[in-house]
Amino acid sequence: MKNILLVALTFLATTFFVSHVFSHKRPYVYTYNYVSEPIGPIEVEYYTSFQFLEYGKFDKVEHQFELASGIAERLDLAIYNIFSQVSNHVRYDGFKVRIRYGLVSENDFIFDPQLYVEYKGVPALDVHKFENKLIISKTFNDQLNISINPVFELVLKLSSEPKYEGGLNAGVSYTVFRDLLDIGLEFTSKYVYGKEPAFYVGPVFSLGDDQRRWNIGSKIRLFRDKVDFEIRSLIGFYL
Questions:
Q1: Of the candidates 117, 118, 154, 109, the residue with the CA atom closest to the CA atom of residue 136
Q2: Which helix (H) or strand (E) holds 218?
Q3: Which of 39, 77, 215, 224 would you label with 202, given CA atoms 20 to 30 Å apart?
Q4: pLDDT tens figures, 67-98
Q5: Domain locations in the chain?
Q6: Cα 173 versus chain centre, distance
Q7: 70: left (phi over 0), alpha (psi -120 to 50) or beta
């Protein structure tokens, strides 16, 4: 736990006190709004997800480190490294590579659509996961954002049949104090073929401006007696 707090505080201090950082504004931790990375600068994002199956007890903590940059107009590329922590044991879980492409420039259409394609690999390279999202987003009066992300996933394992997964992420966010605070609500769902669908909802807060931000959100599973919720922190800045 001390190691987790130390890493989080280090990234927080870096984000808020290092000069020449200029992050875009993303008000969510699970949902994507329309964002196109600029060509040249490299964005750094650090995700920390605390997963609970009992009140007051961590089941697992997941760390994701992302580097992203624009490679063409409305097209960007990102690389992630993923680690998980159970008690004091840290394990490397794999990597992700994703591309994101804006079908139109922001505000050129009645809503802002983007395509999101991601590949996730594990260290043994025996499981391959492909995730596709359609990002549908719109910001009204530079204050109210509504975003919807239909998700389709394909999981390929060398020793079994392909597995299909799907879901929907959605968020509503409102700027309370410009360049300081956004508050919102996120809804996520996941369906794995042959299993019971899962539905989650939770609040999200975004602190900071277009140059630096720290997002904190959570999701709790609905329609289930057992405890199943997660708290996620997302810190972002540019190098």
A1: 109
A2: strand 212-221
A3: 77
A4: 999 999 999 999 999 999 988 899 999 999 99
A5: 2-238
A6: 15
A7: beta
- Tens digits of residue pLDDT in 33-78: 999 899 999 999 999 999 988 766 678 899 999 999 999 999 999 9
What is the per-residue pLDDT for 64? Answer: 98
| Closest CA relative to residue 29, chosen from 203, 228, 166, 210 | 203
Q: What is the 8-class DSSP label of residue 10?
A: H
How many residues make up the chain in this entry?
239
Distances in Å between the Cα of 176 and the Cα atoms of 173, 190, 219 are 9, 30, 21
* pLDDT tens-place string over residues 192-222: 888 889 999 999 999 988 778 999 999 999 9
CA distance 104 to 81: 30
Q: Return the residue matching tokens 């504004």.
A: 25
The three-point CA angle 65-220-236 to 5° equals 25
| H and E: helices and strands count for the chain | 1, 12
- Cβ pair 168, 188 in contact under 8 A: yes
Q: Are 156 and 127 in contact (CB under 8 A)?
A: yes
**DSSP designation for 39:** B
Euclidean distance between the first and final Cα of the chain, in Å?
28
Q: Torsion over CA of 214, 186, 122 and 68, rounded to 10 degrees? A: -40
Listed residue (96, 99, 104, 144) closest to 123, CA to CA: 96
User: 2-238: CATH homologous superfamily?
Assistant: monomeric porin ompg (2.40.160.40)
